[in-house]
Amino acid sequence: xxxxxxxxxxxxxxxxxxxxxxxxxxxxxxxxxxxxxxxxxxxxxxxxxxxxxxxxxxxxxxxxxxxxxxxxxxxxxxxxxxxxxxxxxxxxxxxxxxxxxxxxxxxxxxxxx
Amino acid sequence: xxxxxxxxxxxxxxxxxxxxxxxxxxxxxxxxxxxxxxxxxxxxxxxxxxxxxxxxxxxxxxxxxxxxxxxxxxxxxxxxxxxxxxxxxxxxxxxxxxxxxxxxxxxxxxxxxxxxxxxxxxxxxxxxxxxxxxxxxxxxxxxxxxxxxxxxxxxxxxxxxxxxxxxxxxxxxxxxxxxxxxxxxxxxxxxxxxxxxxxxxxxxxxxxxxxxxxxxxxxxxxxxxxxxxxxxxxxxxxxxxxxxxxxxxxxxxxxxxxxxxxxxxxxxxxxxxxxxxxxxxxxxxxxxxxxxxxxxxxxxxxxxxxxxxxxxxxxxxxxxxxxxxxxxxxxxxxxxxxxxxxxxxxxxxxxxxxxxxxxxxxxxxxxxxxxxxxxxxxxxxxxxxxxxxxxxxxxxx
Lengths: 113, 397
Description:
The complex is a heterodimer of chains A (113) and B (397).
Chain A: E1 2-10, H1 11-19, H2 22-38, E2 43-48, E3 56-59, E4 67-70, E5 78-87, H3 91-99, E6 106-111
Antiparallel strand pairs in A: 1-5, 1-6, 2-5, 3-4
Chain B: H1 4-28, H2 31-52, H3 58-73, H4 78-86, H5 97-105, H6 112-123, H7 128-135, H8 139-155, H9 165-187, H10 199-213, H11 218-231, H12 257-271, H13 278-291, H14 300-313, H15 317-331, H16 333-343, H17 351-363, H18 367-380, H19 384-394
Helix pairs in contact in B: 1-2, 1-3, 1-5, 2-3, 5-6, 6-8, 6-9, 7-8, 9-10, 10-11, 11-12, 11-13, 12-13, 13-14, 14-15, 15-16, 16-17, 17-18, 18-19
């Protein structure tokens, strides 16, 4: 089955990353790269997203002009920061992968149609 | 609603429902559709059996109804239908099939309420209406929970299998939590016993089934023993007027000594595995109470020790509160009160914290503060049996 892993950052996580020294930050990125390498046979694509300040949301209400707003569609402390598409046997295998994810503190697993 | 005859019917249904669900899921590879057919067959049984009597082979009867419903109702889903059409009774039985079913119903990616509802419906053969009555929620709510859970199982790729060895421990804990929750819900039931199903009976049945399927898991044995130790003393818990009788005041001659001895033997067997766990320890604590022939004979030092071990494995403020109660009898009310003071912030919303404080205050000769604490506890509980006890205490001179 194919799933998308949505990686979600919290304000606290972003702050901690910001506060890190260059060596620590480098190390944090390395761990993510390692994770990607470990699971490369299951990964079918994905990307890191640019920060939420760069987002634009368009709300399409029936009959009205589309409303364009600055920012992500949910204004909150948790922001989608990237995604990876994976192909695995079932939800258990996806869960096993995600349990070892070394990056942001929240991951949503969504099956693809 | 629950006459002895209805109870007997329900038990026969329960005996076969999960086997049927497991067989149909195995044969067709479609958990959600299998579950629907089982529910149809269960409803048909509850309608026909009271009139026609229980058939000689209830399993074959249920299977035939489920199969026919499947062939009638699923015309468009030809793949499923053709598999079903090929199946004849008796279907080959797979000893692991029911275990797979249980682990799927209690998958950790399902919400707890969904795990509970699904387990009751699929494994125990309860109807949606029965589940709704037992939990005092609208039937539509239960139906929604079940259909959402089934949709997730199918569409999100929740596997139908027994977990691998490396995750079996965590997954088994999930199953045991569901059974424990059923037991607790039944034990503390606020629903009327006459109108609702006895969930303690279902919890015991499930724990027993799990024990047969996984005979070497000591925590399964622990939970089974825990439930049996409570059931063995159930008839002493309620006075003829329906009021709750507390442990010190219970008529211990009503306790089923044989059942208690059996459950204690189970615990000894579990202990041989040398893998202690929260359920074994809780059961051991209950066994200390159950084995004392008088309240005065209770081995409180042993109970405090078991609570220490339990807190080490599973720290929880409520367990600390229970330990404090044991400590009162082992070391006196002053020591227990010191423990309670340390819990004041965490358990301020918990009625039993205030009820326990009231008892200690009374033992320490501070009756008016005790009454205030009882009043506070009364405001926090919704359980009618507990309310009755507290009301009596508040109104004491």
